[in-house]
Design goal:
Layout lengths: L9 H8 L6 E3 H18 L3 H11 L2 E3 L3 H9 L7 H13 L5 E2 L3 H9 L4 E2 L8
Parallel strand pairs: 1-2, 3-4
Helix pairs in contact: 2-3, 4-5
């Protein structure tokens, strides 16, 4: 949503992505974004959010959920990692290597770092 609707990190994330044309998400990320856009558009009564959400998805490579990703996600530590976050991380691990994994959720950040990934959080101030 940070690339669809203005959030505190939007500017820094947009700037960071300018020089990084290869961007990948899982099909779960696509669904999550488009569902969040639907909610936000209904609340804000702003149909333009739909077009921005579609444009963001169009700028990403979308990786299908495979048995290999599902198997890897099921085995990721820590055990408290939420299912959808585990799918995101497993997708990145299996589709990589990538320069960095962008995440703002603390549990997902910790799990990605534990999995050996470089994590970036453009615009994020520690302790927020």
């Amino acid at each position: 949503m940070k690339l669809v609707a203005a959030e505190p990190e939007t500017g820094a994330l947009t700037q960071w992505l300018l020089t990084r044309p290869v961007r990948v998400t899982s099909v779960v990320g696509k669904i999550e974004l488009l569902r969040a856009v639907r909610r936000a558009a209904a609340i804000a009564k702003d149909d333009a959010l739909h077009a921005r959400g579609s444009a963001v998805i169009g700028s990403l490579g979308v990786t299908a959920l495979s048995d290999a990703i599902a198997d890897r996600a099921a085995k990721l530590d820590p055990g408290v990692l939420r299912t959808l976050d585990a799918i995101h991380l497993a997708t990145a691990i299996l589709a990589g290597p990538f320069e960095a994994f962008v995440a703002y959720d603390d549990r997902l950040v910790d799990a990605a770092r534990s999995a050996g990934m470089t994590v970036v959080q453009p615009g994020h101030e520690p302790g927020q």
